[in-house]
Each structure stands twice: as C-alpha cells, then as structure tokens.
Amino acid sequence: MLEIPAQFKEKFAQLLGEDEAARLFKALDEPSKKAFRVNSLKKGAAVSYDLSRPVPGIPNAYYGEISGKDVEWTSGTVYSQDPAAMFPAHLTDVAPGDRVLDLCAAPGGKSTALGEKLQGQGLLVANEISPSRAKILRENLERWGVTNALVTNGSSEDLSSKFPAFFDEILVDAPCSGEGMFRKSEDAIKYWSEDNVLTCQARQQEILQEAVKMLKPGGQLVYSTCTFSPEEDEAIVSWLIDNYGFTVEERDLEGVPTAAGRPEWGNGNPELARCFRFWPQDGLGEGQFVAVLRLPAASNAASGEKPAKRKQDKRKKRGGRREDQISREDLEYVTEALQGLSLPAGLENWSSRLQKSKDHVFVPLLAPDSLRGLKILSNGMELGMLKKKRFEPSHQLAEALGQIKQDRVVDLDEGQYERYLHGESLQTASQLKGFVLVASKGQVFSFGKLTTSGQLKNFYPKGLRQ
Known about the structure:
Shape: globular
Helix content: 25-40%
Distance between the termini: 34 Å
Protein name: RNA methyltransferase
Largest sheet: 10 strands, mixed
Structural class: alpha+beta
CATH topology of the largest domain: Rossmann fold
CATH class of the largest domain: Alpha Beta
Family: Belongs to the class I-like SAM-binding methyltransferase superfamily. RsmB/NOP family.
Strand content: 15-25%
Region (Disordered): 301-326
Domain SAM-dependent MTase RsmB/NOP-type: 1-296
GO biological process, one term: RNA methylation
Radius of gyration: 24 Å
Number of helices: 13
Number of domains: 2
C-alpha cells in the first residue's frame, strides 16, 4: 500500500471533496496500466502483440506490455507509453511540413508521435536538457525511423536565442511534481511537498517564457504535466492567458474518460474548462493535464528579436573545398554502399545535400553554421561513416529504411535474431553480397555485411547489444 503524504491527502480532499478524493487515493493503490503504440511509419509491419484492447481516442495504440528484447521494439515498430501521456502529442495540430518543437522531450514518446504526424516532411526539434536523457531521446527517435529530427541537448534559453518566432507548434510537457506518477515511481512520493510544487511552478514559468519567444504569432502551444496540483496546471494556463493573451482551444475527446479543467482552480476564466485532466480513478492510465493554447496572430511575444547573426565560416579548406564538404571519391563510396536500397521520403536528392563532420556523413535539416552554440546530438539523417577507402551505413539509416519495402534484406529466425543481438556474426544461405538490411519477422532492425562465403558480419551497435 502506498504511503501517500498526509498533506497531499488533505489538499485533494479539500479540492475534490471527500468522496472523489477517496476514489483517487484508492486508484493510486491499484496497478498502473501498460500500453503501447504501433508505428504508422513502418507500414505493413505485423506485430505479435494482442491488438484487441485499443486505447480510446488514440490511433494505433493498445493496452498491453511489450518487451525490449522483441524485434517489434528493436525495429521501432512499437513504443511503450502510458495511455494518458499519449494525449499531449495527439491533441496538437501538427501536419506534414510544419516546424515543431518538443521542448522537454525525453525519453521520446511524444517526439515519436510528433514525428509520425510530420511523415518525414518539415522539421521536428526535440530538446532535452539532461545529457543522459537526451541520448535516450536520440536513440528512440532513430529507432522510430524519424528522418527529419534535430535533437538538441540544452536549456530553453539556449534554443530561444536561435529560434525566435520560428515554430508553428510547440509542445511543453513540463517538469513537474509528478503526482500522476505516484503509483509508478516511489521517488515521486518521496520527494513530494508543497514547497516542491511551488518550485516546479516557478520553473514551468521560466521554461514557458522562453517557449513563447519561439512560437510564431498565431501558433499553437500544447502545455502538459503529469501532476494534479492546480498550481502547476490551471494556474499556469491562467498565467499564459493573462501575460501573453493565449486562448484555450476546444477539442473533442468523445468516448475518452477525461475530466474538464477547473476554472475556479485558476483565474476563473471559463476557457480553463477546455483543458483536460486525466485522473487514475477514471481508468485510462496515469495522471495527466493537457491544455491546447493559441497565441494571438498579432502577438509580439518574441519581443522583436532577430535571429542571431551567423559567424563567418573560417574553417580550413583543402584544395578549395570546405572540410565539411564531401569529396567525389567519398561520394562514390557512399553511393556504392547504398546501391539497391529504397530511400524513404525526405532523403530525395540526398547526394546534393550531403555534409560530413569528423567522417560522419549526414543530410542536415538546418545549416550547421546556424546552430553554433547549441549542443547537437543529431541534425537530420546520418547516412554513415567514412573509413579508409570504404563507407559503413549507420544504424539510424537502417531503422529509417524499415519504413518501406526493401529487396536487400536477410530475415533471421528467432534463434539467429537472438544471436545477432548479442553481437555474433552468422552463416547464411543468402546469395546477396555487401551491405544488407537485417530483419526478423519482416521487421528491419540493423545493417549487416555479407561476404562471398555467405557470412553475415554483425553491424548492430555495440551499445544496443543484449
């Protein structure tokens, strides 16, 4: 039985009334609900999991538990996510071609959903301030096959200086007191206090001040938390309305067990009733709060800031060619390695857009010069790495190529799949030669290289081996 803080119980008994508060406290002692999403970018991929219990309101989402050892996971065909946490990204208006920012993005559940909506078109900037969590974010976006993501590791202030009035949509799933995670995290209970709630509120305002600077006039901001406290939910939305003129947009979630926001818990504005609260006692998942907001079209929230001037590129040149430009010889190595592979949307005309950094060859989304001062984990699609007189395609590319039907594939049985994940090379009967995609159950999860004797050399990243 959870040892819920007495002050928390007193607070929510006053806010909800004794009966509804009792339902909440009872629900917090029940097991949390597991769910997963099926990746619509990986068209035609069949999964072995039970798809008979859909999550209401979310396409391609189902109740159930998945394993990180299954090919569905390693191929980026499924993603484990709390059902309520699926709604912030779902409620955005993101469409192909948009410029989108997920400001507090790790571990990547919301970013992968936004990447699906973009369908390889436009720009997704996925940022995380924690270096370790940013690494996980990058891995999850790569696994999902998102080709148009810029993954950054910085603060909201770092980004706002680079992207004033730039984004069509911004999602801020803000750091919070985590009350909605009580039944999943002992630390959420351990560190809960009213002082921490107010500390989180101040931090949320600091983050949002910078987020608003990056939103285009008329743009959309989706604000969410996994907490119940009005100080971090309705009060924050009230602050956005009062200080920046935001309006709260209506959304229809018919058939989804959710509750309306409470105007009396904020500034009394009736628009607060358009916010959504997901309570554990309503049976959907964990706790979540979501508000969909619209910035006025005539907003001056960016305070007239101009993009930072780009410094002149003074990098050394070799024979009249910048060091980040790829040579004709190197281009031939890349072309040879990719021969016979079908490329997904967003990689058309890749050869004319190639750049390299420390022998990593990539197709950038934004000019690297314009991003100086930011810590960049990934800028678009890394095709692979140049080595002495050869080129090795990247794991990121393998996961992206799994979106469409490929001919150069070696499909492993269950035993071979497990051995390959361990890092073993395998003997095959394939007649293919050179770099091939490696799959199991028809789901691509890696590159390998076939020798003339049929040996499949293992290129599964060492850091992911099991």
